[in-house]
Amino acid sequence: MALLKVGIFGTGRGGDYYSLFNNNENCEVVAVCDKSLNVTENDADGRFGDTAKFTEFDEFLEYGRKNGMNLVFLANFFHQHAPYAVKAMEAGMDVLSECTAAGTLKECVDLVEAVERTGRKYILAENYPFMTANLKMNEIVKSGKLGTLLYAEGEYNHSGSNEDLARLTPGKYHWRAWMPRTYYLTHAFGPLMFMSDSMPRYVSARSVHSKLLEKNTARKNCDGTAILFCEMDNGMIARFTGCTGMASDYSRYRVVGDIASVESGGNIGPDEVRLYYFEHTKPADEKENCRVIKADLSDFGEKGKRAAAAGHGGGDFWIVENTVDCILNDKEPFFDVYRAAAMSATAILGWKSCLDHGENFRIPDFRNKEDRDSVRNDCSTPFPDENGNGATMPCAMPY
User: Fold this and answer.
1) What angle do CA 312, 315, 321 make, to 5 degrees?
2) Where are the beta strands (DSSP E) in 35-128?
3) Topology (CATH level 3) of domain 4-126+318-335
4) How do residues 167-200 score in pLDDT, each as one tens digit?
5) Structural domain boundaries of the chain?
6) What distance in Å separates the CA atoms of residue 108 and residue 119, rounded to the nearest whole number?
7) CATH code reported for the domain at 129-300+339-375
């Protein structure tokens, strides 16, 4: 009998996890919920089988209460996860949430305090740290080979044609039409936090307009990229992007110490990382000061084989595995509610920095009540509601 009875809210991205949960011997998906009838009640392709289907979240939770549902996976709209996470935890369920954790600083506070109040477990489903090459980078960083960490950088590129962008933006007030470039930073910044085991303390950022994106009528956010710069709590500095539309190849990461550096992406092959030493810092057992290392999921045995078949370079598989380990074995997740809130706050304050010509902002320590109180009522948002109301910040730089 499955120990984790899972409910999935949001069957677009959540549908990608449906079989991953059901293929784990400890899990069973017992309900799915989505406001779109095409993927729930009608379920034309039958991918959710006999799983209970709902269009209203409260009905979904009520069914869950009566049928032993104890984990809710949130894969609804990008900026709307926190209120549903709070509801699920107050209903006695643990939460696995897609990125980002919260859309406003107030929601960061609400989320943290819901975890502390209910005692439920909260995990952010940030999968890029667990892609194959990034797992190898993490192994090297944690080994101490780099020496004292000085600097890290992350870049996440995800562009598309005007037709693609329009297809992914169904509706004038869809979140993708109004998301500032700093907001989707989790795939660029998450791996850096994970590898360096650090948290952001201060953020400064700048955003730049794109003439190409100006021509896309489906979206109001015409900035091509945002660059964020953080001081980390381990003394390191980090530079990273949000989700960019730059003309560049796919995501890349680099961590630099005073002895060596390691990087992935760019001109380095898939599932490979490059380790570099100065000649005067090269250990005696290293034949060359620069070598490329192949990351191999076979090191993980049978789980590695299953990860190789999963999405996002194995990252989706490890999200499920790590969640099971957290809930059943009480293993603390790296992306707990405090790190999740800090990442969301970095995105929000990074955008405020862009609007203020790169002004430096301190990231609240959400473990600290005084810090929480300082942003408790901050509902600043660039996202309008479904009627076009409620946005209090622009979603792109003026041009």
Assistant:
1) 145
2) 52-54, 71-74, 94-97, 122-124
3) Rossmann fold (3.40.50)
4) 888 889 999 999 999 999 999 999 999 999 999 9
5) 4-126+318-335, 129-300+339-375
6) 17
7) 3.30.360.10
